[in-house]
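Reopening this ticket.

The earlier resolution said the output was attached, but the attachment link was broken on my side. Pasting everything inline this time so it's all in one place.
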Amino acid sequence: MTDLEARDRAGRSKNVDLDGLIHYVDYGGDGPPVLLVHGLGGSHLNWMLVASRLTEQHRVVTIDLPGFGLSPPEQRSTHVEHQADVVGRFVNDVIGSPAYLMGNSMGGLVSLLAVDRHPQTVAGMVLVDAALPPAALRLPSADTLRFLGPPLLPGIGGRLIAWARNSRSVEEHVAATIDFIAADPSAVPREVHEAGHAMETARRAMPWSIPAFVDAQRSIASVLLRRRELLRAIHGIGAPVLIVHGAEDRVVPVESALWLADIRPDWQIAILDGVGHVPQLEAPDAFLDAVGPWLAAAITSTTPPGA
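Inline output:
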């Protein structure tokens, strides 16, 4: 058992071939399935504080998208549109019945696109600080430009990321990332830091990790800039949706979540005060307090009488 697999001792680490290896962790559990989808630069470990707790009412599975975590790209594109197709196929081939998708950041955008492209695989969706267009024209913060800007620079983006990675130790890289994505970094438990160290160490030995990151980040920007297409997808979704967003998110400002709730007033929204971009790691109790009742209500409302 590898160090990373040991950190998933509450779940079973597995692989499946979907035109290339996909690593996932099956936490088991009874009830309607929930598939947890990580964000840009993330992995199945982004759900380590909440996955096993969701098994009280659900079968829970976390996935490493191609090019992230322990899933190599293997000639597959890491564009978010292609990631959405992987999610749809994974639900169909591995889970075997429509699932509730729960996606954080890039994973939220991937989940939204998966609902649009493969609606038969989705029972509902929770968008957790999902990658969304800016609600207003304003300059990104210096931190945002430093963390998310380099991949968008043609020709040199990958080299800049490699330079930044090589200039810092694993511990420094993980600490800087948590400082950026959490409103209160001290609220993120030590075990999350340690899991991040193990994953970052493994990723530094994977030559495809930086190109995959760059490819995915550029595709996020491309999708968000095609606002009319994205709005068409948003308006076409018939499944129930919950928006969860940290009020202090510096990556995707809360105004974007409020914009989404405004154009889809039938979707529910929960704003978590004092929380940043990864509420499931920074405030897992508050996150589950928002998600758990919504899932229960959504399942009840979509269950046929007598089922």
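Reporter confirms the inline version is readable. DSSP finds 13 helices and eight strands in the chain. The two ends are 40 Å apart (CA to CA).
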